[in-house]
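ok so I'm stuck.
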Amino acid sequence: MMVAGRWLQKQSVVLATLGLLGCGQTKSTGAFAEPPAAGGDGGDGAGGSPPVPEGCEEAGGFVGDPSWSGTLTVDSDAIYCSQFPSAKSLREELDAKARLTIFPGSYRLPSEGGEFAFKLPLCVAEAGRVFVSDVGSMVHTANESSDSLVHRYRFAQPLIGAEASIVSDLSVHSDPAALVAVTLSGVDLLPGDPVSFIQQRCDETSVCDERSLNFRPCASPNYSEYAYRAEFSTGWVEFYVQRGPGLGATARSVLVRAIGSLSETRFEQADFFKLVLRDLSAPQFAVLFDRSVSGVRGIEVQDFSVAPPEIGTAPPRAYLIDANLERITELSDSTFDFRVVRSAD
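replied:
not stuck anymore, here's the structure
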């Protein structure tokens, strides 16, 4: 166990936190709960895809040319959660939270270059609101590479009533003699893959900048997973984070669940809209409960890093918080620990 203000010195643990170690090179340094099992009933529990938000059915159907020769297949797991790179606080991250759902189906893509009217049926759920896509445009270019043909598609679709648009960039490396065939399954497409897919929530003119939201898969089996644990006199909490390529603010990270106990009341939270992460060099987490526990609505942990003290990082701290993420009291007796749950190959 690592006491607040006392840092783990083993370089293997530091590297593991940054996602740089292979499987089996580090182990738990303290007592952790068994992580929730995968699977589930498709609700906002510990596993499975969240339900399609009410109101998404108004997105309607696909708009494109049925004679196009390429195919884009979308399965039921094509659900993506927002990241707000420019968020300066947990509150800004919470306020910006959004989840994007692409309707399952088989859609056509052109093989010839040009600009076309296009609509991929999707919706974006925010706190208490749902916005659906309208007809927008698609620009397609195809360029020869050394041994493949690189197709680049940009979809720009306005969101009805949101003064915003979803801009999606799809890149496909294919055999020049083959037809384009792509499947989106909610699994992150990593550097080096023949397909890349990037989505952003941009302004209504489809201009994207540092204020734009990025969308990543809400969970991905090719991410490493880490558990961050805080213990205090009235209970404990564990935050489970899946992290893909990149470090610090550039990492592809998602807080997938939090479990714990407060004042002998057990909680487990997997609702994306009640889990908040600012993924900097020293991550900051918050979990909001479904109901009040001993007069509080959640727990925050800040500056949770296992970097050695000479780097100058502050010691981690834990707080009880209200529903607006305002701190009520510091859990000054907290101790902290970290372990690797799963290392990506």
